[in-house]
User: What shape does this take?
Amino acid sequence: MIPPLQEIASSLRAAWRLLFLDAQAMAGFNLTMAGFWRSFFAAAFGLPYYVLVLWDSYAAGEIGLPAAILAYVLSWIIFPVIAALLAHILQLGRNYIGYIIAFNWAGALVPQPLLLLALLNKAGIVDENAYSMITLGLFVAFLWYGWAVTRIGLGASVLTACGFVILSNLIDMLIRVLLLYPQGGA
Assistant: This one.
């Protein structure tokens, strides 16, 4: 379901505020069950980057379209399911809905600088070395951002938030390796 434009704007602003450790940012999200389901619309914001990054591999026949689509969908589903179980086990379940809402909308922001960087690289404005170094710096920043979203959204301890961030990234890597590059091409 597509959220109303007002909800999209408010959620993106709230996700941006989480970057600056603003605990009040959670009030900018629709923290209802409807808001939970609509937060998965944030996947649409990451799709342009995903397509751009995989386009060359797809065009070369290295990956198939069904596998790419499945990988993208699963990358938005598997972690929230596992996080629900972990949140319950760790007695953080009361914050789970808000956490996933914040996590999803943060996931709409994360690909944007990567998309810009990839476009600049494809246009020849940013060379491969600079592209790699900037991407590495962004990855570290995104790890921190994921930690901040988990600390504030889930109310997790420092170490628990680190664990959730590591788990989220490991799941994404595993999905890519198993579905997109099953022969070890990545």
Summary: The mean pLDDT is 95.
